[in-house]
Amino acid sequence: MGFPKKLMIAGAVVLTLLLLAAGIAFVNIKEVTVVGNERYSGKEIEDRLFPDKKSRNTAYCFFKEQWGEHQQIPFIEDYKIVFHGFRSVEVIVYEKSIVGYLTYMSSNMYFDKDGIVVESTSRQLEGVPKVTGLDFGHIMLYQPLPVENQQVFNDLLTLTMSFSNYGMKVDEIHFDSRRNVTLYIQDIEVVLGDHSDINGQISVLNDMLPQLDGLSGTLYLDTYDETNTSMMYTFKKK
User: Each residue of 26-37: pLDDT tens digit?
Assistant: First the structure.
């Protein structure tokens, strides 16, 4: 008596899947493409996620991506590995939104737009301003910065968004006890005062920076008036 036709088909399918799985078990990832990364180079991300032969095994990587835990990488919120065949993957990186950092106990404490400390490191990230003048207590990783006035984080977010719109690199943002702001850009000190119109002040600053290139001194934009388009601003050389 022969085997039923359906049973033979099912057996063939199972055998094919077993052979396919056995074949994949010996296939390794050869090509890695990284997108969404700014804090790290593509090579740095690749080296972290695929440091050895085991991690490059296609089957191992697939099951780890589906059911395993992702690595914790500083300044990275999460990542996703997308397979494009058995030998090629794309790593999509989702970076944390960093607005500034404080120096605390010889470390740079980076925080996001909500004031949450997301990383402590000796590394200094390019394009992230140092924030000074804030009074705070004991700082803990992954906890909100213990500052008295939480409104300061809204100020920081508005400032950093304005910097980003103009491609402006600011070295330091200083707050005094009344939340008056002073910026430091290379050898230029920029007094914004109560920054009641940050966007307008940053727009004026962006227009003036090329004229101040190579100079050292203080630019006073605390007198900014959006209704006075012919306003002259004081720059005092050191």
Answer: 788 999 999 999
